[in-house]
Give the backbone structure.
Amino acid sequence: MTLTAPRPPAVVTPPPARARKLSKIRATATTRTLISAVDLQRHRYAYFCILGLTLVVFALVFLFPVYWMVTGAVKSPAEFAEAVPTWFPQSWHPETYATAWTNMRIAKYFTNTVLYALGGWLFCLVVDVLAAYTLSKLKPVFGRMILGLMLASLLLPAAALLVPAYLTVVDVPLVGWNLLNTPWALWLPAAANAFNVYVLKRFFDQIPDDLLDAASIDGAGRLRLLRSIVLPLSRPVLGVVSIFIIIGIWKDFLWPLVVLQNPESQTLSVALARLANTSQVPPTEFIAGLTIASIPMIVIFLIFQRSIIGGLSAGSVKG
């Protein structure tokens, strides 16, 4: 009589589709979410319906003003002034954009704005990088208190700082210069940006000190460390801060309105508002000017939207 070993139980392999589904559920089971993975899989049709409806509503809320601005410029002045607005232009007048570009001298004010934005970007980036590098790596006395005072300035509304900033620009302390109607009236206040300093400092904090110490042993000075090590490693956050600076200067209206009183030196937003108060500019041409003024910032955001998110989160995780 021969004894045979018992056979091991057969392993039932689920179908490939079901196996993938189970592995997906197990992978997301450890993630804490508002709705569990099992409930999400069970009610996935309701989930996608709600998600699609939410996306459509938010898209309409944000894109409808842009659509209204673009189509409002191609309407006739009579149609634009009707009490009951029309959703689609009854007659198309795309030549309004060319007329607005010529009559409102948009090219002149567009050039002024580009000059202010580029100069402000360079000056603000230099000041903010040096301030963040000093607070992060040089560890000055009362550095934390200085950073706290900088961040406390973010709690103040911009209107509360308008009068002190104007008095400073009219009569610069110690030198007594009057900076009205000059680019410095925009560049100097823009350089004092606590948010940019904080973002840069948080990124600089993630750079290992051992790397800087090794370069210091080889004879690199403080500025050489900043130029050769810190700045090349900080390209993502420098790109994000640069976008914030340019957009902030481009869309600013109140401060340029106060300090740029000469019409020849005004920015595009201030010039459009001034020309809108005159009876010589039809409303459709004014809307066309607003559309032209908003195109550069929309293009910049669409191109660099991934860089903005990636640059802000680059220094938030320690590797």
